[in-house]
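Q: A reviewer asked whether we had any structural model of the full assembly, not just the individual parts. We don't, so I'm hoping you can provide one. Inputs are below.
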Amino acid sequence: MAVGGPSKSHGIAKRRAMADAVIGHVTDAGRARRRRFGLRSAMRRKSMTAFLMTSPLIVLIALLVVYPAVYSVNLATLNRSMEHFVGFGNFLFLFNRETFWMVVRQSCIFALTAVLFKAIFGFVVAHFVHNIPAKGQRKWRGMLLVPWVIPPAMSCLAWLWLFDPSYSAFNWVFEKFGIGPIPWTGDAMWARFSVILVNVWIGAPFFMIMYLAALKSVPEQLFEAAAVDGANFWQRTWYVTLPMMRNIIAITALFSLIVTFANFDIVRILTAGGPIDLTHVFATWAFRVGIEVGDIPLGASVSLFMVPILTVAAILILRDINRRGNEA
Amino acid sequence: MTAIATAASAGGSTRGARRRSMSRDRRWALRWSYFFLTLFAIFFLLPPVYMLITSLKTSAEVSAATNPWWVYNPTLANYAELLSSSQFLTYFRNSAVVSTIVVAVTMLISVPAAFALSRMKFWGSTTLATGVFLTYLIPETLLFIPLFKMFAVFGDATGIQLINRWWVLLLVYPTLTVPFCTWVMIGYFASIPRELDEAALIDGANYRQVLTRVFIPVALPGLIAATIFAFTVSWAQFLYPLAFTTSTDQLVLPVGIITSLIKGDVFNWGQIMTGALLGAAPPLLIYAFLMDYYIAGLTAGATKG
Amino acid sequence: MRGKLTRRRFLATTAASTALIAMPYVRGSHAAGRLSIVLWDHWVPGANNTSKMLVEEWAAREKVEVQIDYVNNQGNKLLLTTGAEAQAQSGHDVIALATWLPSDHANQLEPVDDIMEPLIKQNGALNATVEYLGKSQGHWIAVPATIGSQIKGPCSRIDLMKQYAGIDVQAMYPAGAPPKAENWTLEAFLKAAEACHKGGFPFGIGLGTTADSVDTAGAIFHSFGATLVDAKGNITVKSDPVRQALEYYTKLAKFFPPDAPAWDDASNNKWLISGRGALIMNPPSAWAVAKRDAPQVAEQCWTHGMAAGPKGRFAPFIPYFWGIWSFGKNKEAAKSLLVHLSQPAAVEKLVAASGGYDLPSFANLTTFKTWAEEGPPKGTLYHYPNPYNHQILSIAGAPAPPKIAVQIYIQGVMTKMTVRHLQGEPMERTLAWAENEVEGFLRT
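A: Here is a predicted structure for the entire assembly that you could use as a starting point for your response.
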């Protein structure tokens, strides 16, 4: 892109200046010679150092994540009383259950809808914050990020109380306007709405912050050029803003998709999957089937079913990150 | 919206001869912006404000179902009860200790690892970086039973009790914080110009010195942001402490609040909201003071390479 | 250091004193080991102190070092703790077990026939539900606990029932006297529900999947003789009693609050305390909280028996148990402790401390003073422990094999059936769905 041009050369000059400032003035030729020399000796110590530096990470992940995960896979192949090996039996069993497919559908719809609204909200709010003068932005940004900072377990309690069938503060207000009491968690459609609402409430600020930062990094000249060409707001958004932010939009959305898909707390605290299992997602249903009912292998199977779906999302994210890295 | 459009298109720059109409359009755009921002702010801040209001009510007032948005007989009794309850203070202390140590451990693990992964291209580094990210795919609900069994076996074999002790959380929380912190630090480190560390290497520094003398100072904002993130995540944990700690003196705050303020089918909402607010306070306070670093850290990957 | 009391000497002592059971665990001055126990965390303020005092009394006498952990079931804490300890074969020695947990972990619990038999002789018989839940393959695997056990019968508003339904609950179930409840049938219940609903104070019965909702549905189903799975494990979903039960309960459910399908265990409490309902199915916890927060509601509450159906008068009974892990390290001491906690004197103290909420499961222990005297209004709890034995105490899902019944219970199949049929699904489709669900529960 033409835009990269001017800023890139500017960047290189800046970096060179920084390097000089850090280590003092050296001639170009001398520097080149010494670079080769210095690196080669460093190379020898490199793998050792690298290994030492990453070993705590590897040990942590291997011991406390990979090993238990493998054990869970093993669990998922056992029968209910964990005495016999049944291979794929648990998965086949799940495929025959109506409730399981309902949970799959619900999880997907929940995750996709929630992420979509979070992205839209985040995008819209980011624009508004970007519009106001810089010194006010800090204050507003601060206020708007609060939902994401509060521990979800705590804020879900507040929402639970706000949605309470007998004491809902919302219903109290609506009653004054003659709108009947809304069964926030009692009716299937309202329950789904409520769960998505709380998820959006918690997650939208994160999107806002990411999009705001990305908005700020779009050079003003682009907007001015478009304006000079006679573009209105919508055209500018479509042709300039969105393409420039495309990678960030994709990465944030996909990351949020993974986290939302595996969400446990919100559904568990607000609806526990009800009414009649119409708000169950994978994590909560796995918990009910595995722990509450006592069929641990089946619970493990349900949880594991998430992994292929999440892996696809993860691969997409990583591909996008790499693409962004190449483009920059 | 067209008002905003034309105004915004003239946006940050005040060049041009249309100054008078621009400022009027700009004012309208600002008004609309503030209007919608206020709406959103109300939406986002409603629940915490409601928590505050409820926490000032007595149990009787809560049950009486009077105006839920106003306190008729405000009382600090809920706060007094909780803050003077040794149980609550124990929960608070446990949370604080666990979170602080986990943050330290996380930083000690992820910073060197991020440095190695972003700078030293060794065999398997890309696979490892991907693998770190993929650990997010494995949900807690899947892991806690095998982990419990592992800890029990460990406790029997070595005599060090892990089950029902708060220090077991020091082992499991990092699995949640390290992947993301590593990823953020990799993003930060990757944006530091290579000339810096290559120059330092030429000067004879080994990798450790490059890390401590060059990288950490330059990437300090990212470090702080990762620290804040690790703290927030540790503080908010629910499932792992619920599964691994049982005795009252070993519980951390989220679990403690929920299990001691909600008993049987009796919910004490005034106290619950107080507890929830107090439980949310530390992350909120840290966030309030270190907001810029927090936001900068989150957006590290967004703008830098 | 552990005492050298052998099992034989223990049993010999037991056999020798069937009338009064005082279990000296060890004679001598050397330390007698440690015991770690989990007790159900009581919601009644101060009730934990009584249980603690009783345990420490025993511990001082037997010179055992005891560590008590109070755990309630919020966030499924008790369930998780039990499951994890069973999996890891490590944890506490004695553990409080909610309703279905003894059968869930039957093969890891120490058989306690040796202490149950003398206890039954001393305290009276146990009802069939307790045997169903506490026995596995003919052996007692847990001791019924007083703490936490409850009957979830009707708790009505005297004034509202009189005004709208024309029923005087105090006359029907007078304090201090046997019940006069021949006309308290499910038909009368239905009529009363309709009347109160019209009057604006519906019955607050939930249709969710938490225990309160499932228990009521279970009692109703039993009243028609309806079971989803019989004692042998055969599926009996598509049977006439089930159809009748479903038919009745759906009719009744029309008069429940509109969001009943999402009610949890606290919803009916709030319904009563806020003054919006004429009747809920709950133990006295709701009334106790109303005493503190809404006294004008509390003094109109009356706990009484359930209505009778074609096949009998069934009330939901939820026993808790105390179990001893078979991998525990101090089982003899544990047994001694449980015997101590089941003595009439101890039980009476526990009942008093809980304000009458806790229910011992033994037949001779249902007439303590506490229930007669709790108030206001005085006598409101007199009929709570079913003193005249005029209702059958049951649990939803029985008599199916416990491993199947627990799934029917936790998954709330009966309430879900009702909700589906209530929302318009034809009965045969609902039954087909239920049958499919239950088939899934037959997994081994």
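A: Points you may want to mention in the reply: Chain C touches chain A through 37 residues (CB under 8 Å). Residues 47-62 of chain C form the longest helix (16 residues).
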